[in-house]
Amino acid sequence: MIGVFDSGLGGLTALREIVRLLPGRDIVYFGDTGRVPYGTRSSETIVRYALQDMRFLCTQAVDVVLAACGTVSSTALHVLRSTFPLPIIGVVEGAAQAAAHATKNRRVGVIATGATVSSGAFVQAIKSIDPQIDVTSVACPMLVPLVENGYIADDDPVTALVLDDYLSAIRAAGVDTLILGCTHFPILTGAIARALPDVTLINSGAEAAKLLAAQVPPKQADEEGRVRYFVSDSVPGFARVASIFLGEPVEDEVTRIDIERF
Amino acid sequence: MIGVFDSGLGGLTALREIVRLLPGRDIVYFGDTGRVPYGTRSSETIVRYALQDMRFLCTQAVDVVLAACGTVSSTALHVLRSTFPLPIIGVVEGAAQAAAHATKNRRVGVIATGATVSSGAFVQAIKSIDPQIDVTSVACPMLVPLVENGYIADDDPVTALVLDDYLSAIRAAGVDTLILGCTHFPILTGAIARALPDVTLINSGAEAAKLLAAQVPPKQADEEGRVRYFVSDSVPGFARVASIFLGEPVEDEVTRIDIERF
């Protein structure tokens, strides 16, 4: 069983890629919709929440887990890995590899939540591959609420104005490659591409899905491509927002759990 | 002891008014910074969180409580009042009275979180005072993240663009009075006044503070005007954001608690 979790529904952009790469596998997804967002909270709180998320997934007999949340991946992954005896993949490593491979001028940008940028995890991962790469990181805390409130059209004027401000340092640094370091951000790919037309965009959730596909245990005979969703807020409303991230309607089972008990 | 709580730090706009009206009183404030915001969550989750918030305040020997959160006041107040045997004041009643008193053309607007607008609490409270008043309510989910991320200047272009969209229905309805139904919104008074120059703005937190002042027990001899702050996320960062809402630096005691245990 493949486990995927996120602070909320942004991780569904990674789930979408897993389903594409590994058709027919059974997957369990947990979105902490009762406590989203994580990226504006302290690392202490993020670690506490991520431990609860993992403890819940472990009740679902998962063999491998994708922490499909940039904030958890950059802030809590070492704690999760030292606590749980199963492979846990984050979204930092794959994106760092893809960016180091894609950049021609050795200038890479990273946009992510405040907590992720503060952690320095993407910078460290890229430098460990090639210390000569110059990395410019910018915290973009407004992008998560913009996505969640539907300001997602390629030409949305509010999103364009916010991006113009956030991306000025990225533009000034002359990067040719930009990591979307939060799994909400691929929803804004069109708007970001308009703001940075000649820059290669790296989808960190999709890169993590590729790493997962490479190390997932073989498909079991009884797997039937079933995706089960668990959320910590009530279920109504989930399907509407989830369909934005998945790009198609959600027809699978959705269950509310009390994450504070884990 | 006066207790005040909010989903996060917006309730500090009400606390500021309590301190002004009731100088020298001891106050305990709880802000659920580890789970903010409430206004985008389901009523079921909001009620669960509000019960935990109240259970914590009850450990602090409070005599009276102000639920300084528009979302809690409109969604969970009846549950809180039937659960805890002490006076609990919300932000709906005072604002409804002030708006009914202020309007000349009997057209009142309400801007608030999605959960508050869905509850219909402000409409019901205004209609119970004067059924002839026409009420136009608009959910403004982006205003909380805008405030929390510092887009608070009177002429901020992002906030102006978002407000222009949200306030079009309020303008079309021809209201002469607008309730700021979320305690974050008074921080945007300047920007809202620019967008609606001839409309009277009602600060729901400040109106609730007036109701509280009218029914608070007499000052005890040992009260010394001490304000203690409790938050559910880590303490660093609290002082910076809190000073935006309070309009002055925070020099009092701040303690982190684990709200999930209550």
List the defining traits of the structure above.
262 residues, alpha/beta, six-stranded parallel sheet, Rossmann fold, homodimer, 17% strand, 13 helices
The sequence of SSEs of chain A as H and E is EHEHEHHEHEHHEHHHEHEHEHE
Write the CATH architecture name of the largest domain in chain A.
3-Layer(aba) Sandwich
Span between termini of chain A: 20 Å
Biggest sheet strand order of chain A reads 4-3-1-2-9-10
Strand-residue fraction of chain A? 15-25%
Which value, in Å, is the CA radius of gyration of chain A?
17 Å
What's the oligomerization state?
homodimer
The count of β-strands of chain A is 10
**How many domain units of chain A?**
2
Q: Uncertain regions of chain A: pLDDT < 50 for 5+ in a row?
A: none
CATH T-level fold name of the largest domain in chain A: Rossmann fold
Biggest sheet architecture of chain A: 6 strands, parallel
Specify the CATH class of the largest domain in chain A.
Answer: Alpha Beta
Mean pLDDT of chain A: 95
Count of individual helical segments of chain A: 13
Choose one word for the global shape of chain A.
Answer: globular
Q: Give me the secondary-structure category of chain A.
A: alpha/beta
Please name the two chains that share the biggest interface, counting residues whose Cβ lies under 8 Å from a Cβ on the partner chain.
Answer: A-B, 26 and 26 residues
